[in-house]
Amino acid sequence: LSEEQIRDSLLQQLHLSEVPVLDKAAMEELVIPAHVRAQYVALLQRSHRVLSRGK
Amino acid sequence: RFSQKFQEVAGRLLASEASRHLLVFGMEQRLPPDSELVQAVLRLFQEPVPRAALRRQERLFPRSARARVTVEWLRVRDDGANRTSLIDSRLVSLHDSGWKAFDVTEAVSLWQQLSRPRQPLLLQVSVQREHLGPLASEAHRLVRFASQAAGGSGPREPQLELHTLDLKAYGAQGDCDTEAPATEGTLCCRQELYIDLQGMKWAENWVLEPPGFLAYECVGSCQQSQESLPFQWPFLGPRQCIASETASLPLIVSIQEGGRARPHVVSLPNMRVQKCSCASDGAPVPRELAP
To answer: Cα dihedral angle (B51, B53, B59, B63), rounded to 10 degrees?
Structure first.
């Protein structure tokens, strides 16, 4: 799994042609809302459940 | 005939008069748990046709002395309905006799995917006319395969030959030994591989979570089978150590929307290796069975 493969997969998932240029100052102020974090955690847990269940 | 759009077409039904045999193989314990099926061969003994019958057939139908033999896997569904899958079909000559081999690997692979307790393996063998039509040959009536002798096993009864590989020697070895680094002689295993997203320049300010993840990779070599199989699959490559099961990776990324950045959850498929296996490129892949 290379760095390029991860980047290309992410671009494909977001339907983007190139990596977006984001303002660093704006990013530092960005807060992840609770519902977004909950969605992320749920996906993480689901993929770990698949992992522990095996084939 | 019920459609307004098409003109009615009259047809004639030409009976195929197939003869059908159902072969039942009790398969439990035939395939050891730590083994991989490489090939399954059904062997049927074609009985010789009596000379007089052969001469009569040649006189009546001088052009065709062949019949079509079809092998299907028969599955009895939970609701009692029968479902057949075509496994092999070929023409056999009336002049032939002796053992005929059919590649039934797909049937056994499909049977292995049934939920337990599994029904026996059911193979339906039918002998049909080569062609349909008023002047079609009757050769199919003369093609006969030896069946199981009553009360015991005969030398010519149908046989199912299973070629397997012991996965302890020929399969992947689970997770690699973290103490010993993988070398050329290492057998196929899953090795830890940490992907540091924070260290990637392009991910800066874009990927918010996670800072990195354990992706794993498949390393090492696979032992090659030296056995000469009855059916040589032309496109089958060597056994290679590959990721046979993968999991997705959720990420929180920032996306630009209406002039401002907003966190967004995205899931990237096949980013983490769950299982490594030794597999040949070109080998039949077991399919998901519909209920």
So the answer is: -90
Judged by average pLDDT, the poorest of B177-186, B210-219, B238-247 is B177-186
Whether B268 and A9 lie within 8 Å, measured CB to CB: yes
Among B108-122, B221-235, B265-279, the range with the most confident prediction by mean pLDDT is B265-279
**Under 8 Å between Cβ of B173 and B189:** yes
The answer to whether B274 contacts chain A (CB < 8 Å) is: yes
This model of the complex carries an ipTM of 0.86
Q: What is the pLDDT of residues A5-43, one digit of tens each?
A: 999 999 999 999 988 887 777 777 788 999 999 999 999
C-alpha gyration radius of chain B: 28
Q: Which residues contact B186 (CB under 8 A, 6 or more apart)?
A: B176, B219, B220, B221
Contact A40/B at CB under 8 A: yes
What is the residue-averaged pLDDT of chain B?
85
DSSP state of B283: P
Task: Give the closest of B206, B215, B265 to A19, CB-based.
Answer: B206
From the list B248, B266, B272, the residue facing A10 with the nearest CB is B266
Strands (E), chain B: 19-25, 35-46, 66-76, 82-93, 98-103, 121-129, 159-166, 189-191, 194-196, 207-209, 212-214, 217-219, 239-257, 260-280
Cis peptide before B117 (omega within 30 of 0): yes
Within a 13 Å sphere around the CA of B9, how many CA atoms are in the beta-carbon half? 5
CB contacts, 8 Å: A23 with chain B: 205, 261
Q: For the stretch B125-138, what's the b/e string if a residue is b when 16 or more beta carbons lie within 10 angstroms of its beta carbon?
A: bbbbbbeeeeebbe
Instruction: Give the model's pLDDT for residue A55.
Output: 39
Helices (H), chain B: 51-60, 105-112, 167-170
Chain B residues lying within 8 Å of A39, measured CB to CB: 265
| Subunit contact B206:A22, Cβ cutoff 8 A | yes
- Counted residue by residue, chain A has a size of 55
